[in-house]
Design brief:
The chain is of the alpha/beta class. It is 26% helix and 21% strand. The chain is globular. The structure holds iron/sulfur cluster (2 copies).
Length: 289
């Protein structure tokens, strides 16, 4: 079997907000949404090696090789993020390529301190063959098989994709960013039919761990479309976690910087609309920046 590799933007050795318990999180590069509110827009596209970021690097950590590819020398990089700021392509030259074996070794180093791993993004499921091989290796390794394997997803993967990873999958966190097609299309560039189908399918096989609802005052529509939203949530399992996400400006670029941030007061209003209409536990943001 060919060993798969993944393009990785970042690895967090410990996180307590990316699934249950303490988790090692692998953020994969590339996304099939183009959210106006994205907090990490440099993770959306793969670098096209245009070279625009190279000359501005203050430490000469970027260069162009003999094949016209931009090469990043991590040892020279000070992580000033100038290259990310100037990239016209919503990308980054600071991307790692990891094989499944590389990551298994890393997970083994952390195995006593974590309850599982989460693959996130970008949109992790764009690199599904890699995820399947990684999860399979975790579950079949006696030193790692106690770890849970989660995916943080925008929900755009079709059911056939979920079925391929299902044997090794413990749970999924799915974002729902808007209810009406026009709003969802405007906000992320794609419709939400597949997202809602994923939510329903994952719930039916017991793999939907968390449903994340985005609230952008006056822009997203989950508060104004509450009855339809509640109807969906009431079909989902009782032990599902419903997490409310408050739009903030951190990392955001473009027109969304002009949008009103979601205050704690506004989030409390949304929470009050929802609480009492659904039986699942609701988690609120802890930080508003
Ligand atoms: S983040 Fe690193 S590679 Fe990018 S401009 Fe700064 S020093 Fe150069
Ligand atoms: S990171 Fe962006 S600016 Fe730099 S080479 Fe890649 S696409 Fe061009």
């Amino acid at each position: 079997m060919d060993e798969k590799r993944a393009l990785v933007s970042r690895i967090l050795n410990f996180s307590c907000v990316d699934g249950p318990g303490n988790r090692l999180v692998i953020f994969l590069q590339g996304c099939n949404f183009n959210c106006k509110n994205c907090h990490n827009p440099h993770t959306i596209n793969h670098c096209n090696h245009c070279g625009d970021c190279v000359s501005g690097c203050p430490t000469q950590a970027l260069s162009i090789d003999a094949h016209d590819k931009v090469v990043w020398d991590e040892s020279l990089c000070t992580h000033c993020d100038h290259c990310i700021d100037v990239c016209p392509h919503k990308s980054s030259p600071k991307i790692f390529s990891y094989s499944v074996t590389d990551l298994i070794e890393l997970i083994k180093q952390q195995r006593y301190f974590i309850s599982g791993i989460t693959v996130s993004g970008g949109e992790a499921t764009l690199q599904l063959p890699f995820i399947i091989q990684l999860f399979e290796r975790v579950k079949s390794d006696p030193e790692l098989s106690h770890l849970t394997c989660f995916i943080d997803s925008n929900g755009y993967l079709p059911q056939t994709g979920w079925q391929r990873v299902e044997p090794w999958l413990d749970g999924v966190m799915v974002d729902l960013k808007a209810w009406q097609q026009e709003t969802h299309q405007w906000l992320v560039g794609r419709s939400n039919h597949k997202v809602i189908a994923s939510i329903t399918y994952l719930a039916s096989i017991g793999k939907l761990h968390e449903l994340r609802l985005l609230h952008i005052p006056g822009k997203s529509d989950l508060d104004s479309q509450l009855n339809d939203l509640v109807r969906l949530i009431n079909t989902l399992p009782e032990d599902l976690v419903v997490r409310l996400n408050a739009f903030q400006h951190h990392g955001v670029v473009g027109e969304a910087l002009q949008w009103e941030k979601c205050s704690e007061l506004e989030m409390t209003r949304f929470h009050q609309l929802l609480a009492g209409k659904i039986s699942q536990p609701i988690k609120l943001p802890t930080v508003y920046t």
